[in-house]
Amino acid sequence: MHNKYNNEAKVFVAVDCIIFGFDPNAEELKILLIKRNFEPEKGNWSLMGGFMEPGETLKEAANRVLNTLTGLENIFLEQLKTFSIVDRDPAERTISVAYFALINVVDFKDELYRDFSATWFKISEKPKLIFDHNDMVTLAMERLRFKASVEPIGFELLPAKFTMRQLQMLYEEIFEEKYDKRNFSKKVNSFGLLKRLDEKDKSSSKKGSFLYEFDMEKYKKRSNGFQIRHQIMN
Predict the structure, then answer these.
(1) Can you give the pTM of this predicted structure?
(2) Which of 139, 147, 187 is nearest to 167 (CA)?
(3) Which partner from 25, 100, 178, 184 sits 20 to 30 angstroms from 63, CA to CA?
(4) Most confident among 106-115, 165-174, 209-218 (mean pLDDT)
């Protein structure tokens, strides 16, 4: 039987993952990058990516790529945009679908991403990336800021138990703004979405800082959203 697709051009479909992580010790928002080990652009910094396999959906391909690099499953993952400029990859005609992921740096298995020469970079200090990967990162940061302003997406980047300072530093990193400590704490607690624990983090002082947990059940019952940035700046 004649296949009417035989004479059509073949195009590769790839997924590229912008992986954001928050380092609670350095109190920095970071991005995970790898050194490319094949041409073109061998030895240069890149996002983690791969080609979609015949039996996969795009999201399944992106999850596979993330699991291969981090060893983690059930990661927050969202499709960002399709990049299809004709000469974006000099090797082959390739369309790439970009995803951004949010993970807790502490959960990582170091031995996995050492195999890929992967390194965490502070967002403001990331090196130049191959192809159109810089554009992907810029767009992912814009999406992260938007989503963090209207829903509690930032908690995907924190440990299950975190200090108020870590929460504040995370949002300062995302929005590139400084907040008053007392005002931030007061406003965030007024949302009623945090549970203060009896435990303390004593890594930075003898007195220690109370640890908190995010109350997802309370958030699900709310209908007016989170809007943390608007609240803490007013």
Answers:
(1) 0.90
(2) 187
(3) 25
(4) 165-174
